[in-house]
Amino acid sequence: MRLATWNVNSVKAREPRLLAWLEEKQPDVVCLQEVKSTTEQFPTEQVGELGYTAATHVDGRWNGVAILSRVGLDDVVRGFDGQPGFPDPETRAVSATCGGVRVWSIYVPNGRTPEDPHYQYKLTWLAALRDAVAADLAGHPDLAVCGDYNVAPTDADVWDPAVFVGSTHVTAPERAALAALLDTGLHDVVPTPMKGPFPFTYWDYRAGMFHQNKGMRIDLVYATPSVASRVTAAVVDREARKGKGPSDHAPIIVDF
Description:
- It holds the Pfam family Exo_endo_phos.
- The chain has about 260 residues and is α+β, with helices and mostly antiparallel strands.
- The chain has one domain (about 1-255): Endonuclease/exonuclease/phosphatase (Deoxyribonuclease I, Chain A), CATH 3.60.10.10.
- About 20% of the residues lie in helices and about 25% in strands.
- The chain has a six-stranded mixed beta sheet with strand order 3-4-2-1-14-13. The protein has a six-stranded mixed beta sheet with strand order 5-6-7-8-12-9.
- The mean pLDDT is about 95.
C-alpha cells in the first residue's frame, strides 16, 4: 500500500497540481488537510475519474480534511468523540478504514502564540485526539494518524531552534502532547529528505525560505507497530513544493 499525507493549503487553488500528482505518484490512500472548500467545491468527480473515493469533512473557507482511497473507504467518522471547539468543533479530523488499515487525516490547530487562547485550545485538542486514537486502537491494530500536526517534535525538526524561541510549534507542552499520542503505541515514521539532512515538510512562502531549506517537520505519520514495521520506503516529496503556485507544505509518501 502507498499512503500519503499532504496539507494542500486550498484544494481549489491546488486542484490541477493535486490531480497531476495523483496520476504521477499513484498513492492508494491520501490524507489531505487545510482543504478550504465546501462539499460542493471539493473535486469529488475529478478524483473519482482517477479511481478514488473521497471522504470529506469541510466547512468552506477555513480548515477542512479529507481522505481519498482507491482501496476501499469504510466506517467513515467525521470528527471524534470529545473533540473540543473554538468555540464550536471544527473540521479538523476524519477517519476511515482503507484496505484494512484505519487511517486518520488530521489538521491540528495552529496555536498562534503561547499567550493566545488558541494555544490552550491546541493542547486540549491534542489531548482529546490522544484519547480518541487510544479508543480506536482497541479495534484496529493496523492504524495510521497522518496530517499537519503544527508541532515540530524535536529541535532537529526546525531549521534554526533559536529563531523559534517563544513561538508555538516547539514548546514543551506541545511536544509533550505528541509524546502522549505516541505513548498509545504509535511510532513516528520519519521520511527521508530529498535535500539536506532533515526531512522538513513545510517552508514559509517568504522569498528564499524553500530554496535555502529553512523549513520545519510538522507533517507527520504516526503508525502502529504492525504498519511501521512493514514500511519499505518513506520520503518527503519535495518536488511537489516546487513550481508555480505550490502549497507551502510537501507531501509525505509511505510505502508498506
